[in-house]
């Protein structure tokens, strides 16, 4: 489907999948979000940075439950990327690592705000370490800079695994939304450069395709909290004059990849009523066609960010359980 084509209509109205009733009720209390525009992006970023929780190291330690450290990794262009690492306190031996990339459309978010949930849901129950990456945000960072930040941090973690108490042979890449797209891109990049070989990639509602021409991107326009208009602004902020380029690198937009063999097992999750539905389904299918391992979950009636907006909903609990089960299986292999 071309980007200017509309989805199929019946009776003059676009056929939109219904939201799960429990999720819809919570979304209604939140109300429509502020429209995202390039002109208003800087002000939006400032408001987001002021409002988004940014726990201190002391708060992340949670009364001694976790050991927390901040690291810095050099980047090839002379800059550096900050990493925030945490692990259950008092656990002997090297731990597997969840190398996590936060969401926010590559224009918002930070490495610290996602950690309390990751530590509570996965680090303690699964006895693993987590490193969250403070990659540079667009539009100050452009094109491949965010994924290069993520790669530099991955090298730092793998090369210094022994001193950090990590098992370099059991690294899982993970991320949500923009972070899911970056995790997919990082899996491609480290494969092609012969870098650290992760044992899995956890891709939650991943932002994979800059082209905005899937059926679901049109179908959910104006309905999903993160719709194709907001998505286009985020991609333009990242890509600049490369936006829409026919030869865009798959390290920027993994949906552009034509070679998906030899990748680590993937877990892909998306909602049936979200903008990214079709690109996530297509990516899983492309992995299967390349002979790879992918587990795909399409949560019925879920919109983008459903488990953050409605964490107590039954569907959100099911999604968290499914992610944890996959992580356990991958770590147990």
Question: Describe it for me?
Answer:
Helix 5 (145-159) crosses helix 7 (178-193). The longest helix is centred in the last third of the chain and has 19 residues, at 314-332. The strands form 2 sheets. Strands 3-4-6-5-7-8-9-10 form an 8-stranded mixed sheet, sandwiched between helices. It has a two-stranded antiparallel sheet with strand order 1-2. A hairpin with a 2-residue loop joins strand 1 and strand 2 (13-14). The radius of gyration is 19 Å and the shape is globular. It is built from 12 helices and 10 strands. The protein has helices at 21-30, 41-51, 57-61, 115-126, 145-159, 161-164, 178-193, 215-219, 228-239, 277-289, 306-309, 314-332; strands spanning 9-10, 13-14, 66-74, 80-88, 95-101, 129-134, 166-176, 200-204, 266-271, 294-299. With 333 residues, the protein is of the alpha/beta class. 45% of the residues are buried.
Give the SSE order as H and E letters. Answer: EEHHHEEEHEHHEHEHHEHEHH
Spans of at least 5 consecutive residues whose pLDDT stays below 50 are: 1-12
Total number of helices: 12
Which range does the strand content fall in? 15-25%
Largest sheet report = 8 strands, mixed
Indicate the mean pLDDT. 94
Envelope shape: globular
Multimeric organization:
single chain
Structural class, judged by helices and strands? alpha/beta
Total beta-strand segments: 10
With strands numbered from the N-terminus, the spatial order across the biggest sheet is 3-4-6-5-7-8-9-10
Distance between the termini: 40 Å
Radius of gyration: 19 Å
Helix content: 25-40%
